[in-house]
């Protein structure tokens, strides 16, 4: 049925009033959702002062730049052969902290904590490999761990001073004997066994 013309203004007024109430309600909701004084993400607050030091990254390995650094940090530097049940020491290049390990001793090697972020990049020591190892002694057990995984491993060919010693990893490797060489960094490190002996002997 058609609406009489005389009632049309009344309907328009009612509709306008409804729209006005809805608009006011919407404005009130927006104000409630965005309270005055809320700090923005970009603005520094007393709880997050600018210039504060970032927390240290956990689960990362320390890097070493030189053979001397490895020698100074190691509790034990040895040459020998990996066996199925441990490691046979054929030569001790350096023993710190009163270590009684000598040639002919068999020691137990422990793996890195699997929670270490760099663990996936580490190689595996397998029986028959002849290596020079830079080791840290475990405080709570009679076992040793290579310093920072592959940083502490050199594959060796031969036993004389001119025998070749090559870092196990290309990237996790030192870049010099006593001084770092930026040109070598990231490409592995190759030297003579006699050089490793000499540097270890210099460390008190």
Topology diagram in text:
Blueprint (H helix, E strand, L loop, with lengths): L7 H26 L33 H7 L2 E8 L2 E10 L10 E4 L20 E8 L5 E4 L6 E5 L6 E4 L22 E3 H10 L2
Parallel strand pairs: 3-5
Antiparallel strand pairs: 1-2, 1-4, 2-3, 4-5, 4-6, 6-7, 7-8
Essential attributes:
3 helices, 204 residues, 5-stranded mixed beta barrel, globular, disordered N terminus, alpha+beta, 8 strands
Tell me what you see in this structure:
This protein is α+β, with helices and mostly antiparallel strands and 204 residues long. 21% of the residues lie in helices and 23% in strands. The protein is built from three helices and eight strands. The chain has helices at residues 8-33, 67-73, 193-202, and strands at residues 76-83, 86-95, 106-109, 130-137, 143-146, 153-157, 164-167, 190-192. It has a five-stranded mixed beta barrel with strand order 1-2-3-5-4. The longest helix is centred in the first third of the chain and has 26 residues, at 8-33. The relative contact order is 0.15. Residues 1-18 and 20-59 have low confidence and may be disordered.
């Amino acid at each position: 049925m058609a609406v009489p013309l005389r009632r049309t203004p009344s309907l328009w007024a009612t509709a306008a009033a409804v729209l006005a109430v809805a608009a006011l309600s919407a404005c009130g909701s927006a104000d409630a959702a965005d309270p005055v004084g809320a700090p923005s993400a970009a603005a520094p607050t007393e709880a997050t002062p600018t210039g504060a030091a970032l927390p240290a990254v956990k689960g990362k390995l320390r890097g070493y730049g030189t053979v001397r650094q490895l020698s100074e940090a190691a509790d034990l530097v040895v040459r020998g052969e990996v066996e199925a049940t441990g490691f046979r020491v054929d030569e001790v290049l350096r023993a710190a902290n009163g270590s009684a390990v000598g040639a002919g001793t068999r020691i137990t090697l422990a793996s890195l904590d699997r929670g270490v972020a760099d663990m996936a990049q580490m190689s595996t020591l397998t029986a028959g490999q002849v290596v020079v190892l830079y080791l840290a002694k475990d405080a709570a057990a009679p076992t040793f761990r290579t310093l920072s995984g592959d940083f502490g491993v050199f594959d060796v060919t031969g036993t004389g001073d001119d025998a070749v010693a090559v870092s196990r990893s290309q990237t996790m490797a030192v870049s010099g004997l006593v001084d770092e060489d930026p040109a070598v960094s990231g490409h592995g490190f190759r030297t003579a066994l006699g050089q490793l002996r000499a540097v270890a002997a210099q460390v008190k």
